[in-house]
Amino acid sequence: MSIQKRLTAAVLFLCIVVPVSAQEHQRLSLETMHDPTLYEAFSVPRVWWLEDNSAVMYDTRLPDSVRTLERLDPVTGKRTPFVDREKAAASFRALFTNGNPPRFNPVPQAISSDGRYGLYLINGDIFVLSFPTATFKRLTNTPEKEKSALFSPDGTKIAFVRGTDLYVVDIASGTEQRLTTDGTETRLNGTLSWVYWEEIFGRRDIGYWWSPDSKAIAYLQSDESQVSVQHYVDISPWTPTVTTQRYPKVGEKNPDVRVGIVELGSAKTTWADIAPSSYEYVIRVDWLPDNKSVCVRTLNRLQTDLAFRFVDRATGASRLITTDSDSGWVNMSDDLYFLNDGKHFVMWSERDGYGHLYRFRMDGTLENQITKGPWGTCSVGGGAYWTSQVVAGIDEKNDWIYFAAREKSPIEKQLYRIHLNGNGMQRLTKEDGTHSITMSPNARYYFDRFSSVTTPPSLALYAASGKRMQTLAEPRWGGYKTYDVQTPELMWVPARDGFQLPASLTKPHDFDPSKKYPVIVEVYGGPSAPTVANSFSYSAISENVLANEGYLTFKVDNRASTGISKKLENLLLYRALGEVELNDLVDAVRWLKKQPFIDSTRFGITGWSGGGSNTLLGMTRSTEFKAGVDGAGVTDFRFYDSKWGEAMMKTEKENLKGYEEYSLLRYAKDLHGKLMIIHGTHDDNVHIQNSWRFINELIKADKLFELMIYPMRKHGVGDPAGAEHLNHVMLDFWKRNL
Q1: Which residues pair with 402 in a beta bridge?
Q2: What sign for the dihedral angle of Cα 306, 307, 311, 316?
Q3: Number of H helices, E strands in the chain
């Protein structure tokens, strides 16, 4: 599920920023929680590596008046200005003769790998900043908006999408070339349909890939003409209008997607010769280092078989190299690396039940498994949790591959290295907690953004050996100290079979163990979507607001959501929103109810998106909760998109019984406790149909409930007015019902 696949009520508390003096308010509340000093704890410099293995840094901790892009030499640690800030600003203003330049962020959307240019998308047009000369240049000036812009590898051109066609512009001359001409409302070139943008590429609208020689582009062409249309009513100004969205629901027609390779010189496209009947989804496209071929990864409709095919750039001829499979479904991965020896590639797979790295020969023969053990690798940085990139860097000269994993603990992210033959694994990061790694191109240095549940984020530069070279930002508490914000306590809760469930509990600063406290359980629960982690989290702010109102906040991950293994994740196969999630949730709640400081009669539950679904699951199929708030939850996976819903539940053809048995609609009649349902009418992710259908079942069963509808809001209800209103609505609900 999607933007807010993990969005809970806690996160919604953070949407409004209203300056409030820390000196005036010492107690966190809905009004004071937006004090900017609270968010200082999360501010660390932004960093980018360049191809020469130096770095660019933007230090957000510096005052705005002196903040600028800097170059960092990892060898000497010296920081120098990367661009003349004032000259660049004057150059930008000079482009607008009307004297009214638009506002722009000094941080570019992208930096060319050679460090010459910064790319800016401003009001739908493309600008570049020459860092050496501190001069701006406008490359497009059109009524249509440009999007999905990317530098060519040699830094001389920028590709982009206008409308539904792919273009390229030369930076030096400003000459623009249209590479595709057949884009329409339903034929998309180089840009993604909703289901690809959301579920396959993790909300990155990049449907094309530059060749290493910067002379060709591989791209996706999507035909959405047969995809079903969803409708949203616009209530303003007077007569309602309707907007539409192409959205394939479970069992329905997906977009037809094929891969083309277009040459910049001729603008001629060569189509990959892959039989459409042999696949349902194009998952990734990767260029081979020789510029002669691309590797196209395709997935079948049931998502159980992933094929790797090499496609010839000149002819489009394809050949199957290898396959990967899973009895449940194959997860998305960005990890595919062709080694410089020209004889091997490295890929990621969960074929042994855990996420690990494997080395193959170029003909598809398995050379060896690189990482192995009863633990999984994990994403080395950020991004959507349902896609991952576990490799931080590869140093072939010294025979090391660097990767992130949860080997030490399921709730931590640590950096490791290992030889390509699978020997000599070492853990490089030492502190308990979460390490997000960005490694230099030559794999000699890395930046480590570190935090733990009790330590705010810091940033440091390390040598590849794990030796700290330079601390760039120490942990900073900001308003956390002023408001005495309490960080969660991490714990492990036993399920009925002894499985240890990761959990956290946030108590007030004046916690009294002799009192009996009500509890609000915040849940998400999707496959490999953990909410409990040994990392510093924004949610502590909203949890402390609740603590100051007398509530403890409890989080727990069911075993399928922990991210420990694919074996556990596959427990949801054919039975999402069923016993796996429910039993672990109930076991954790019953364990907590036995603690002497807990009021076992006052338990609430809340969650957004997948968490909304699990809220309804707990409110209808158990009697553990006195009250619950469901935010935009899926109530029947037949209402959700094909890619996500069919991964676990397949289609009705394979699993009609499962859809009927695990639909929350059939359990609405069993609602126990006070329920509030919240949904935005323009939610293009979890359609409001989910709530309407559940509500209809509540009405049939004569079950009372509360409803809060947010007109024309999408999945997150994220506008300032809506978010502030939602904060008050939810707290009011808890006060009245818990």
Answers
A1: 393, 417
A2: negative
A3: 13, 43
Domains of the chain: which residue ranges?
A: 3-40+479-737, 334-475
User: What pLDDT does residue 99 have?
Assistant: 83
Dump pLDDT digits (tens) for 351-405: 999 999 999 999 999 999 999 999 999 999 988 999 999 999 999 999 999 999 9
The secondary structure of 105-174, three-state, reads CCCCCEECCCCCEEEEEECCEEEEEECCCCEEEECCCCCCCEEEEEECCCCCEEEEEECCEEEEEECCCC
- Which fold, 334-475? Neuraminidase (2.120.10)
- In the predicted model, is pLDDT for residue 507 greater than 50? yes
d(CA 548, CA 29): 7
For tokens 């999945």, the residue is 715
Q: Tell me: the pLDDT tens digits for 142-166?
A: 999 999 999 999 999 999 999 999 9
Q: Residues, the chain, total?
A: 738
Residue 459 pairs in a beta bridge with: 449, 473
| CA–CA distance, 616 with 667 (Å, rounded to integer) | 9
User: What is the pTM assigned to this prediction?
Assistant: 0.95
| Alpha-carbon separation of residue 562 from 497, 633, 645 (angstroms) | 16, 20, 19
CATH architecture of 3-40+479-737: 3-Layer(aba) Sandwich (3.40)
